[in-house]
Amino acid sequence: MPLAAFPKCFLPALVTDRTMSVDDWVDLAARELDVDGLEFYWGFTPRTTEARRHLRARLDSLGLAAPMMCYSPDFIQRDRARRAEEVAAQQAVIMATAELGGRFCRVLSGQWKPEVPREEGLAMAADCIAECLECAWEWDVCLVLENHYKDGFWEYPEFAQRRDDFLDLLGRIPRARHFGVNYDPSNAVIAGDDPVALLEAVKDRVVSMHASDRSFAGGSLADLRRLDRHPRQGYAPFLRHGVIGQGCIDYDAIFAILRSVGFQGWISIEDGDEAAAGIDHLRRSAEFLRAKMKVYGLS
Q: Cβ(221)–Cβ(190) under 8 Å?
């Protein structure tokens, strides 16, 4: 089971401030982390085919893969033309994923806009995802639906964030070789769900995983729910990502379930809030996961 890293703690530097280049991140990860690949985020991925080919060659030279693309479409749009734009954007990202040699590209439902009722939103998301499946097949990329909380640049959280909504949306998408689940245990906690129970419900469709651990610092799940209903870019200030294995997630239970279904997909570390401690936290998370994977025969 291969291990990747996602530079969550460096996203402001990579995407917003542009004080860190993609090459900077690749060099840092290759030098400091025991990982097999790097997960990319569309916000810092090169936009041209030529640049992506150059980046892929650079990763190859360092012995690193680019297995996963983290993308956040917003299909919760009442305007049909806006939904079509979101579908076209997701399709372009699928192509870019393939050009980097990636196998998995994330897809979401979209933002939980208060004016959109449940059934309408789920229908929009299911239709749009279905439209993207042919493109995924053409590029031999697997679309992965994540039980997501919120993109760091969104105002509202994920429409299909909670277990019942996520399972409903998942059930509307046909089973196919180019579609599966990207499971994130700590996002289940943020949704108020049991991450182990959620994994049991989707274990036969999980093809990739975000390894994460969350904690609350000075706030609660109830406080988070109150904030969720008001536009606010980014995460609540009291919601923290931390070193894997030091939060509330039972990784023994999770890896036991993954072993029981013969999971051999990529696990990507999603760790860190503070850039200053980011690479140290990623290193410690990688060490924890390597050891746990070995215990469960998944290394």
A: yes
